[in-house]
Write a structure and sequence with these properties.
The complex is a heterodimer. By secondary structure, chain A is an all-alpha fold. In chain A, about 60% of the residues lie in helices and about 0% in strands. Chain A has two helices and no strands. Chain A starts with a helix and ends in a 29-residue tail after the last helix. Classes of the chains: A mainly alpha, B little secondary structure.
Chain lengths: ~90, ~70
């Protein structure tokens, strides 16, 4: 069960980030579009929440000061599996 | 020969663009209708469809006459 939930969470992060990229590209050519702006900001909040959730359960997604190390007494970045691996 | 975009073509003049490879073909004129953001796929669907915007979904349909605006 643990891996499915983890993979599902990663898939959601990927999907939400893709949508944010799409809106980003749209906003590049339509900077005044209020609806797109609002939806973009909504995606940003949702992505942050999803990443926090992932990192709370499985450790950092990205290192070098981006992901949070949620285990107080161990540097999780070394733990297997790496975020992009699933086994 | 249609060189509408060049008034006086001189082979030696470096500033003049080269003549088109197919001289008898008119250069393309692109038009880009302005997209307006109305509907959006839910994120998981957008990732599957390859776009967030339903109006941009244009799967390549082999052999069958592709519907929609061309």
């Amino acid at each position: 069960m643990r891996n499915d939930q983890k993979e599902m969470l990663l898939d959601r992060i990927r999907a939400y980030e893709f949508s944010a990229v799409e809106l980003n590209l749209y906003l590049d050519s339509h900077p005044g579009d209020q609806r797109a702006l609002n939806d973009y900001n909504t995606f940003v909040r949702q992505i942050a929440a999803l990443k926090n959730e992932y990192e709370r359960l499985y450790g950092p997604l990205i290192n070098f000061g981006f992901g949070s190390n949620t285990d107080r007494n161990r540097w999780q970045w070394l733990d297997d599996p790496w975020p992009w691996e699933n086994y | 020969m249609y060189y509408g975009y060049q008034t006086d073509y001189r082979a030696s003049d470096p500033r003049k663009p080269d003549p088109p490879a197919q001289p008898n073909l008119v250069l393309a004129r692109a038009y880009v209708p302005v997209q307006t953001y109305t509907r959006a796929f839910p994120p998981e669907e957008a990732l599957k469809e390859g776009t967030l915007f339903p109006e941009l979904v244009r799967p390549y349909v082999k052999n069958k006459r592709q519907g929609g605006l061309l």
